[in-house]
Design the sequence.
């Protein structure tokens, strides 16, 4: 597959640009009963992700393309099938290549 299925990309679930740490990335999210969230991101062009931190853990899996996560000054390259867990409070940012798709699970409310 080259994109997430249409049913995962409903307008009501689109992440507003003001909620993104990476410019021009298309994202959609879902919120669980406990307030935790999952997001599906598509990077259409090479982009840098601004450094930020969360008050909850974050799990990332790379579906396609390449995503580089920089945590505490250490770089981890994620290729399709690779995954990483970012502990709460950890300063992180990075870079994604055009065509990269990632799925993120957040242990708290990240969007909205």
Sequence:
């Amino acid at each position: 597959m080259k994109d997430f299925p249409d049913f995962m990309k409903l307008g009501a679930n689109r992440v507003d640009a003001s909620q993104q740490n990476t410019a021009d990335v298309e994202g959609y999210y879902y919120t669980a009963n406990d307030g935790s969230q999952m997001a599906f991101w598509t990077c259409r062009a090479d982009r840098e992700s601004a450094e930020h931190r969360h008050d909850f853990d974050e799990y990332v899996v790379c579906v396609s393309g390449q995503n580089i996560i920089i945590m505490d000054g250490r770089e981890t390259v994620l290729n399709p099938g690779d995954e990483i867990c970012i502990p709460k409070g950890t300063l992180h940012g990075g870079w994604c290549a055009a065509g990269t798709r990632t799925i993120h699970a957040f242990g708290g409310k990240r969007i909205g």
